[in-house]
Design brief:
With about 160 residues, the chain is mainly beta. It contains 1 helix and 10 strands; from the N terminus they run αββββββββββ. It has one domain: Immunoglobulin-like (Sandwich). Strands 1, 2, 4, 7, 9 and 10 form a 6-stranded mixed β-sheet that branches. The protein has a 4-stranded antiparallel β-sheet with strand order 5-6-3-8, with no helix packed on it. A hairpin with a 2-residue loop joins strand 1 and strand 2. The radius of gyration is 15 Å and the shape is globular. GO terms for molecular function: carbohydrate binding. This is Cohesin domain-containing protein.
Length: about 160
Amino acid sequence: MQRLAKHFLVLAIIILIAGWQDLYADFQKPEKSGSKDMMSILLKAENAPSGVRAMGLEIHYNPQVLEFEKCERTGLMKKGFSMFGSNIVKPGVLRMGGIDPSADSLPSGVSGDLFILRFKMVGKGSPDFAFKNFKDDIQEWSTRIGPCNADDSPVSGLVLCIDE
C-alpha cells in the first residue's frame, strides 16, 4: 500500500509540474506471470468527443521500471481499425496508431475498452505514464490516467486505466 501511495504522489507532482489538469494516477499491483512481474494497463475511450477514423498517440513511461511487451486490441478496437500498429520508438516511448477508412469505427459519444498494454516490470520506482503527441481525430481529446471507475473525475476522451 505504501508503494501505491508513493507512485501516486510522484505522478501527481509530475502532472502538476507538467500542467496536465485532467490527469491523476493510481498504480496497479503487479500480476505474477511465471517468474516475471507483469503490469497490464487498459486504455479505453470514455464518452468520445468526436468520431474516429484515424488516430495516433504516444504513451511515455519510465524504461528503468517497465519494459513494453505487447499491445492487444480489445473491445471497440476489435470491431474496426484493421490497419493498426504499435511500436517502441525508443525505450520509454510507445507509439500507437491506426486507420479505418470505411466509417467512424469509434463514433462520437462511445465508451469502451480499446487496448490492453502489457509491460514487464524491470525495476523499482514510478512508471511515470504520460500521453503525448495526439494525432488525427483524437487531437482534441482530453485524458485521464488512473482508476477505471473514477466517477469523481469524468473525461471525454482517453483513459489509461490503472486499478489495484
